[in-house]
What we know:
Strand content: 5-15%
Order of helices and strands: HHEHEHEHHEEEH
Shape: globular
Strand order of the largest sheet: 3-2-1-4-6-5
Structural class: alpha/beta
Largest sheet: 6 strands, mixed
Amino acid sequence: xxxxxxxxxxxxxxxxxxxxxxAWAGDIVAWAAQTYGAGLVATASFEDAVLAHLVAxxxxxxxxxxxxxxxxxxxxxxxxxxxRVGLGDKLNLTIExxxxxxxxxxxxxxxxxxxxxxxxxxxxxxxxxxxxxxITGIRRIDGPTRANAPIVSWDDRFGVVKINPLAxxxxxxxxxxxxxxxxxxxxxxxxxDYPSIGCWPCTRPVAPGEDRRAGRWAGSxxxxxxxxx
Length: 229
C-alpha cells in the first residue's frame, strides 16, 4: 500500500478506505500524517481521550483542534486539561473559538441549528480552510447517520479528505484502549449513562433502550451538530 495519493478522486479514496477496513487505527493516523503532512488536522470532542491520544502517539505534533462552543461541561474542560498535561509536547492542541461577536446567549433555547452553526460549524470551517485532510472520531456504532461512515472519503461540504480511523471500533475497543493506555475517563461517564457528550444545554443521560445519541438535542428532530451531516 503506497503512502501517498496522486489525487483526491473519490474512487481512489474509496479503494484506500476499503484497504483500511482491517487496519489498526494508529496505522491509519500515521498514514494520514505521512500523506498530508501539515495539511492534516484532527478535531477531538473530548467525550473521551482516545482520539487525542491516538493522534499524539501515532503522529506526534499533528494538530488536534478542540472547538470551544462556550457551553462545554466543566468535566469536559477537566478532561482536556488532563490529556494536555499527560501527553505534553506530543499533543499539538489548538482551541478554536467562535467569532468575537458570538457571546454566550440563550439561542440554544429557541434555535439549536443556529446555535450550532455559530459555535461549531463556522469555527470548523475556519480550521479546515487551511488544511487538506481532516481526522474525526466518528464511529459507525454511534447511530444510524454514521452507520455507513467510510474510513477515508472526500468531504464535499468542507472540501477536504475526511479520515475516520475509529469507524470500525466498538465500545469494547474504546474501553480497552482507555484501560491499556491508562487514560483519564470523562467524569460524566460515572454520573450516568452519557454515551454521547456535547454542550451542557443540549445533553442529557440516555434512558435504557434509547438510541445512544438520544440524549443530544432531546425533544427536537436534530441528530447531528452540522459537522458531519
